[in-house]
Give the backbone structure.
Amino acid sequence: MDGPVSQKKSLKMVNLSFRLPYYTQWGQSILVSGSEPLLGSWNVKKGFLLSPFHQGQELIWCGRIAVPKGFHCEYSYYLVDGDLNVLRWEAGKKRKISLPEGIQGEEVLELHDLWQTASETLFFRSAFKNVIFSEGWKSDLEVTPGTFQKSLDREDTISVQFKISCPKLGDGSSVFVVGSSTQLGDWKGQGGLKLSYAGESLWQADCVIWKYEFPIKYKYCQYDNTGNASLEPGPNRELTIEPAEKSFPRYIALSDGTFREKPWRGAGVAIPMFSVRSDDDLGVGEFLDLKLLVDWAVESGFHLIQLLPVNDTSVHGMWWDSYPYSSLSVFALHPLYLRVQALSENIPEDIKQEILKEKERLAGKDVDYDATMAAKLSIARKFFSVDKDKVFASNSFQKFLSENEEWLKPYAAFCFLRDFFETSDHTQWGLFAHYSTKKLEKLVSEGTLQYDIICFHYYIQYHLHLQLSEAATYARKKKVVLKGDLPIGVDRNSVDTWVHPNLFRMNTSTGAPPDFFDKNGQNWGFPTYNWEEMSKDNYGWWRARLTQMAKYFTAYRIDHILGFFRIWELPEHAITGLIGRFRPSIALSQEELEREGIWDFNRLSQPYVRLQMLLDNFGVLWAVIASVFFDEYQKQCYKFKEDCDTEKKIVSKLRSCPDLLLWADKEDKVQKELFDLLKNIVLIRDPEDARKFYPRFNMEDTSSFKDLDDHSKNVLKRLYYDYYFVRQDALWRQNALKTLPVLLSSSDMLACGEDLGFIPSCVHPVMQELGLIGLRIQRMHNEPDLEFGIPSNYSYMTVCAPSCHDCSTMRAWWEEDAERRERFYRTVVASEEIPPSRCTPAVADFILRQHFDSPSMWAIFPVQDLLALKEEYTTRPAAEETINDPTNPKHYWRFRLHVTVETLLKDEELTQTIKDLVVSSGRLYPPTGRADTDAISEKLQGENAEEKISQFVHSNGSQLTEVAAACK
């Protein structure tokens, strides 16, 4: 008889109640989806739909479901539309339900949750968790999250579990709940309820509270190991219980989100790896120099060092490879940054002398890319010939090889074939033009003639890994975040396009439409991505890239994040960046245009060239130009000949034409004018579907458009606006929400997005939703009515900087344009005086201070702008400090600091000047002290934490209203 009775009792159900305040729009709902069938087994459409009700100014979503005793699962909240399609999901880790052991059948466990925003989860990323706040994440686990410790033995009591996240709390700290209940100290009792650390920055405790004490007002209070107690700012939290028809909830689990406090803000320095100069480097900055840079950052109060990409770019074997965004491999590190002296403990005297000789030869003002690469590889080969057997027999190397062979072997084989065939264009490699695993294994097999060459590339990558890992470990130990850079593209002739050709659209090129950097747009030359193919393995190539980066970096910058919404795609035969279209995008269909009375598609999509244009553009050369490059298809109307109807064909013909001598001294001008005529179109016809068209960027500037009738102009202007600013929004948002979450979930690095340029309206909402930090450059703002951005108006989820590597430095910008300088002085400095012609230390201090004082989470400064704070470092012409010129596709990336890091470390005056800016702006962590006027913190003396909290609460309990008001 006992069996069936026991079984019947075990089937008694417990009521689980969800409660979430969340404001939704009409037609939207909140749904709970979880790991168990009752909550849909993670199938959102089968999840548990909540119902809304208003409570004061809040919209509360709630719902009650019966679950069996012993029920436990994970769950999350989702915002859905009327068809249960997911519109948004909360960030952070999955929530966990664990029913209290003593709960009885038909009793209620009420879950009071807060929507987890992506910005709240930033402090769980490795930049904070493993670096800046690492000490606070080392406490031993004391209690399992979600379990109730207190059982109920009276009907008129409720067990309440308090749970709060404190990711920025240091080791040895305590957390209390203080409030109006007796168990919470009654604002003046025995110090409130002490919480226990539950791992992953979570603190929790439960207590039994009398029903008559509800509603309860409360706050959380932190107590650190230095004697500081901090009561949460803002209004009191409040817990109410709604009378149910049958009973009150017996158990309430409060997930109160994150401890409310002043937003954390930090500062950092940005410098390309190649630009660093040290006493030990050989012609270029090296990974081990980062340790010195970390020391300087610490002395200056910085918590971050931002680098440009450090992947191998050795495609051409010449200075063109100085462009750090054109990766030969997205996994391999650049041999340029190798410290050859660190390759061996015992350096022969002849090699020592060679290194000293090369150091002296390469210690120039700028990086000599070709000479530095040649010198380093030559010296490294000498070490390799002596040490290879010892290195390859080591456990460390064997581990490196086994963990990286998936990319390392193809990379080494590619480098061998590149050098053997004297080209990186793998289409020219005959039998090896098409990659296969079988061919690869033959190439890298031991015993082959090229095996030593293959192993040399293993050797170089192994030592680069060791040196960057050493620097990264040192940075973490010193609480400095190393921030890497994720380029948007890869070189057309790269390991990645050779091994994974299906992932790229090789007949296209990547670029950017006209923007701050170039009014004619940019053509980077990278093939665009085949996102459809990439999605088949859940973007495995991207996930592998991020996993590799996370070995060294704890934060990263996503280059041209707009490319994950849509990319500016150009035909492979283009040289400039203007005649492109967005991919993906909803084109203008031929039917759509015809309905609007637009029908002459050849006239609109082919270059519009008339006799008068040839006369105006080429003067006396017009007849020769016309005969060489054009056919006259009707009177005074011309079209390009087939052998010169693209930009690449024009360049080729200009150089090979027998009439070359006629324009030998005017070739650049002739080329530019021909390019302009080639781009004199209104619509771009889709090469894959002749019935689809895209409006040319800035089409109203073309004479082709200006010569149209008024009806056609009006229709095309309206469709132009619709194409660029309206119809794509949902598509681009959907595209980004497919790809960006994969990147973010592939590692725990802190992610920042470079969102400059032509910004679609969907970009910033998506970045905010995903917790992506944007970039703000004062001279490249997005406000149409402002010439200069206002740093004090920047949002918190941003990185602010006065300049970046893609523009002139602060000092050069100041000196470039006298009229602009005067406008800046009037509008930003608010001075009617004539500004100094040079960017003096006082001017630099003003501009930098604006950014230090901004609300942005991070203020990251190019090192050149920081050096402008001291007259001694401004003797070098400002124009020489520019890193990149985006208008020049063949720009030589060669800037080096004219001062060593060792010299900067010794310059106490400069480091103190910078640190004063960090401290005065509140960006120093840990802070040097607390202001007397800070209403949320108070210095407490004594040894007993609970007693101090009690004293603190007792002395402040009667003034909570004033405290809350002061904290807003």
Remarks:
- Confidence is low (pLDDT under 50) at residues 1-10, 929-946, 952-968.
- DSSP finds 30 helices and 39 strands in the chain.
- The CA atoms of residues 612 and 636 lie 8 Å apart.
- The two ends are 64 Å apart (CA to CA).
